[in-house]
Amino acid sequence: MNIKVAFFDVDGTIVDNHSKQNQSSDMELVPQSTIEALRLLKEKGITPFIATGRSPFMIESLLEGLSIDSYICTNGQYAVMHNQVMYEAPYKKELLDRIVEIASQNNVPLLWMPKTHYILSGEHQEFLLEALKNMNLPEPLIETGMKSTNDKIYQMVAGVTVENEHIFYPLEEVRVVRWQPKGVDLLPRTGSKATAILAILEKLGLGPEQAIAFGDGLNDIEMLQAVGCGVAMGNAHEELKKHADYVTKPVSEDGIYYACKELGLI
């Protein structure tokens, strides 16, 4: 394989979220074998990207600890390579207004994500606070009212259970992707990690066959399909594994290093 770029999801892929050890930063949950694999990839001239649903401010410790300066955040709405913005697609105000209207009518909390922070607003905020705690993510700014912001918004999250997520289905411009029992991403239908990846490949003059991607969740399906080799972690959702070219070991069993070695990347 003539791989030039590699895209890695964070939670459940780079970071072992299910580890029982106490930790003060994400880097403490990154297997040493993964750190070594990323170092060796860079030595081979392969640029590693973090590709995550998180906002940029949520991955600062990983970028520093892994010595990575290229990333795709907020499920493809904002992408940077070597500290230069390569692609961005903030939500249109009209769509934000419609999301707010539905959330307000149904007493559903919303998490707004600009680049540098996030804001929790609306009723039943405990739904999303619980989801953030489960993912070891920092607490957001709290607002009691449901109001828009002048910041560019790159991600919207709603606090709804599986039984109630249908309230957002009438929004034709939105895909509802669940990442926690009480939390869903409200993704622009035309946007995904794959959209950003394809934009990056085009700017670099690379073909999909020159890219590889690693993931574990449902929001990684398009990403794995967009590249020449899609790798599902051993701990990945079973549906994602169906779309993978290769299934490696779980993150807790050195899955990234194992795949890179088996596929001849390092």
Task: Supply database-style keywords.
266 residues; alpha/beta; Rossmann fold; Hypothetical Protein, Haloacid Dehalogenase-like Hydrolase, Chain: A, domain 2; 2 domains; 8-stranded mixed β-sheet; 6-stranded mixed β-sheet; 8 helices; 14 strands; HAD_sf; HAD-like_sf; Phosphatase; Cof
Q: Can you walk me through this structure?
A:
This is Phosphatase. Pfam families: Hydrolase_3. This protein is α/β, with parallel strands linked by helices and 266 residues long. The chain has two domains: 5-89 and 191-262, HAD superfamily/HAD-like (Rossmann fold, 3-Layer(aba) Sandwich), CATH 3.40.50; 93-188, Hypothetical Protein, Haloacid Dehalogenase-like Hydrolase, Chain: A, domain 2 (2-Layer Sandwich). It contains eight helices and 14 strands. An eight-stranded mixed sheet has the order 5-4-3-2-1-12-13-14. β1 (5-8), α1 and β2 (47-51) form a beta-alpha-beta unit. The chain is globular, with a radius of gyration of 18 Å. It starts with a strand and ends with a helix. The mean pLDDT is 91.
